[in-house]
Batch of 2 targets.
Target 1
Amino acid sequence: MLDKERYAVKVIQVQEVLLHTKIAPVPGAPSEVLGIINLRGNVVTVVDARTRFGMDPCEVTKLTRILMVDIKGKLIGVVVDSVTEVIELKDEDVESVPDINSSATSIFIQGITNIENELHILVNLDKLISEEELEMLA
């Protein structure tokens, strides 16, 4: 969840879900890059999903999580407000989004789905970070 909105990602890209931990800042990094963490000896870049989507930066609570996701072969941490559940979606459950929103965040949206009368926005993780940004974070 982000800002009381439900988002979904493909579970195949999620390596694990971590409790929020201390993130070391990286001087000169873009605003959505919170910094880096040490994950079992590997340095992993962590980004703030809220900032990436044009929202106010995250406030860490006991529900805050870091999704460890595979984006184009690179492990990235994505801070989210909370993780509520894992659900199975079929392709036919996901509706495309009309291209009426010109906001920068619309490029991240793969589709929408309605589950138990709640709208979920399916995020295309491969578009969350551009090729250029991935190279810079390497």
Note: The domain at 6-129 is CATH 2.40.50.180 (OB fold (Dihydrolipoamide Acetyltransferase, E2P)).
Target 2
Amino acid sequence: MTRQLVENTDKFIKDNIDDVKTAVKTKDLLREKLKKEDTINIEDITDEIFKDETLKQEFINFNYENNIDKPIEVDKEFVTKIVNTLKFKLNKNITLSIPEDIYSDINSFEVRDNGDGTANIIIKDVSTIR
């Protein structure tokens, strides 16, 4: 069910969230919850992830419709696999995979909000490209 929750969240973001900052924040918060918690209740994480009441209810309903309607046990083995590398699917058919330690290092990687729903992704201190 952990995989299903991650897939549901990715699909929900793709279909319902146009603002890059909110999309990134949503993925970050879910990732942190999966790392820290043994059990996830969809209503509880929704309250922490979304401020907008409409988005909260839509996310809950979306998960209920996709078989997550009760607390789930977090599959720590799966979480370990997915949290070590973050994947972003960007417009223009670009997929970006970033190791978590690079993503978390402000001296190596930055998502800069443009204030208009878009963002610039900055990869710093690149010495080689292959």
Note: The two ends are 37 Å apart (CA to CA).
